[in-house]
From TrEMBL:
Role played: May be involved in recombinational repair of damaged DNA.
One GO term of the biological process aspect: DNA repair
PANTHER family: DNA REPAIR PROTEIN RECN
Keyword Coiled coil found: yes
Regions annotated as coiled coil: 310-361
Residues in RecF/RecN/SMC N-terminal domain copies: 1-500
Protein name as annotated: DNA repair protein RecN
InterPro entries reported for this sequence: DNA_recomb/repair_RecN, P-loop_NTPase, RecF/RecN/SMC_N
UniProt KW keywords: ATP-binding, Coiled coil, DNA damage, DNA repair, Nucleotide-binding
Length: 545
């Protein structure tokens, strides 16, 4: 249940805080005051997408917050499994900035719009005029029927099995239509042989590239070693000159220490010479740089032709192998594929028939409930019928479902979309909403001006129906009709005012006297004594049911 709604810097609202209660809460106000903005705010807090246009002019960000009771053990467990701290209340907060940044939180923890949408569909249902047009669509009718019949889980199974069946059918059709000439078979075989002969290994390309780098480094070093050796070993090179210097200095008694230093230097360089020989002799010549580069060229050529990676190359190899096998063993492969298709089709048909049977089993009960609610809404002659036709295999089963109605005696049944005037359609949709939503475990039902096109006794009946729903669910209703608003357990009024260059919208909970004045204004345009007296009589009539 929604306990509280707060909006700040939101379109026309500077700040508003509304405490909701159980029963039927009605929000009224003159056209353009901003009644539906509050329902939109609840929608945004339920995960609906929005833009920065909702930020009040001159402000940096808008803040929306909704507090809900959280008593359902299943819901608490779901939240805890997703690492949310859960107490007695669920607080949804959303901020939207002027630079298009939006953040949504559950109990102060940042989450995603998708998660919030999934969560809130279990708690709140918002029904607007747009939902009326959605319910006209056959696919929507099928979906709500499955919700009523509790066949959602079975429908998911049918969807999974359908995709298996579709894969098998596509594979079989491909086999049947697949024909290759001898030249084409040779081409496919050559491709396969080319991949097999290359025998590319996982990560081989990376290994080869590393080896090439190592080889290139070694070759550069070897050139340096050879040049160094030439400098040391050549005639009249460094070693020869050092040795000659040593011999020359040795002849002088005064230079013996320096001669010994030259001698030590000579032997150090001679050791370096030996090390350079060892480095040159130790160079790996088992695989040439040309061979490594040729292998890389081969592998990259295969990758370029077959997908760009080792994985795609192996997928192509498997594909070619299967294609060759299908050609060489066509009859056997066809038989196996046909058997797989028949098995998948049988499994799908069994589940689809089961789904169809469960759907049809609730037709009579559903039709009766809808017509009962229609009578309460002064559609005494309305007849409601669910029509089913068998269609080709599909993800949602084998049923084409359509809602048909007859609004008057002797009138033929026609599809829902062709059936009624605006006022009749509003009542029909309310009847359907009552039936379908009470099956879903929803705690809060919101009606956003669904009473369009009705007035007088019909509006009174719609208000009475919503009040009846409010005995079991929290109901929020936006209306412009006094006959509906009179049924409110709690009455709120939205007002718009202007100050200089700014427009402000506010909302207040009305006491009994203020509610009568608002009802009188809604009915007569202004609260004259006669209009207030009529409002009192309307409230008295409501209080007596």
């Amino acid at each position: 249940m929604i306990e509280q709604l707060m909006v700040k810097n939101y379109i026309l609202f500077d700040h508003a805080l509304i405490d909701f209660s159980t029963g039927m809460s009605v929000i009224t106000g003159e056209t353009g005051a901003g009644k539906s903005l509050l329902i939109d705010a609840i929608g945004y807090l339920c995960g609906k997408r929005c833009t920065s246009n909702i930020v009040r002019k001159g402000k940096d960000k808008a803040t929306l917050q909704m507090v809900l009771s959280c008593e359902d053990p299943t819901l608490r467990q779901y939240l805890e499994e997703n690492d949310f701290d859960v107490e007695d209340e669920l607080i949804i907060t959303r901020t939207i900035t002027t630079n298009q940044k939006s953040t949504i939180r559950i109990n102060q923890q940042v989450t995603t719009l998708g998660f919030v949408r999934h969560l809130m569909t279990q708690l709140i249902d918002i029904h607007s005029q747009m939902d009326t047009y959605q319910l006209i669509k056959p696919e929507t009718q099928l979906a709500v029927l499955d919700g009523y019949a509790h066949t959602d889980a079975l429908r998911k199974q049918v969807s999974v099995v359908y995709h298996t069946y579709k894969e098998q059918k596509d594979a079989y059709d491909s086999l049947v239509n697949e024909t290759l000439s001898d030249d084409e078979l040779d081409f496919v075989t050559n491709q396969y042989n080319q991949i097999c002969e290359a025998d590319v290994q996982p990560e081989e390309l990376d290994t080869l590239l590393a080896q090439i780098k190592q080889k290139e480094d070694a070759l550069r070093n070897q050139e340096m070693y050879m040049e160094s050796l030439r400098s040391l070993e050549e005639e009249q090179g460094i070693l020869d000159r050092l040795y000659a210097l040593f011999k020359s200095l040795q002849k002088s008694d005064a230079m013996q220490e320096q001669a010994d230093q030259i001698r030590d230097m000579y032997y150090q360089l001679d050791d370096i010479k030996e090390t350079l020989h060892q480095q040159i002799e130790g160079t790996d010549d088992s695989v040439s740089l040309d061979d490594l580069q040729a292998r890389v060229y081969t592998i990259r050529g295969l990758y370029q032709r077959y997908g760009g990676s080792y994985e795609s190359l192996m997928e192509k190899k498997t594909e070619l192998e299967q294609q060759i096998d299908r050609i060489l063993h066509r009859e056997t492969v066809l038989e196996q594929s046909k058997a797989n298709l028949e098995k998948a089709e049988k499994e799908y048909a069994t589940l689809a028939q089961k789904l169809s049977k469960q759907r049809k089993a609730c037709f009579a009960e559903l039709e009766s409930k809808v017509m009962s609610h229609c009578k309460d809404l002064m559609l005494e002659h309305c007849q409601f019928q669910i029509k089913q036709e068998t269609k080709t295999y599909a993800e949602d089963g084998i049923d084409t479902i359509a809602f048909y109605v007859s609004m008057n005696p002797g009138q033929p049944f026609v599809p829902l979309k062709d059936s009624a005037s605006g006022g009749e359609l509003s009542r029909l949709m309310l009847a359907l909403k009552v039936v379908f939503q009470t099956q879903k475990g929803i705690e809060t039902i919101i009606f956003d001006e669904i009473d369009t096109g009705v007035s007088g006794r019909v509006a009174y009946a719609m208000g009475q129906k919503m009040h009846t729903i409010a005995k079991s669910y929290q109901v929020l209703c936006i209306t412009h009709l006094a006959s509906v608003a009179a049924w409110a357990d709690t009455h709120y009024c939205v007002r718009k005012s202007s100050q200089k260059d700014s427009t402000f919208t506010s909302i207040e909970e009305l006491d009994e006297e203020s509610s009568l004045i608002e009802l009188a204004t809604m009915s007569a345009g202004k609260p004259t004594p006669a209009a207030i007296q009529a409002a009192k009589e309307l409230k008295e009539r409501v209080s007596h049911g």
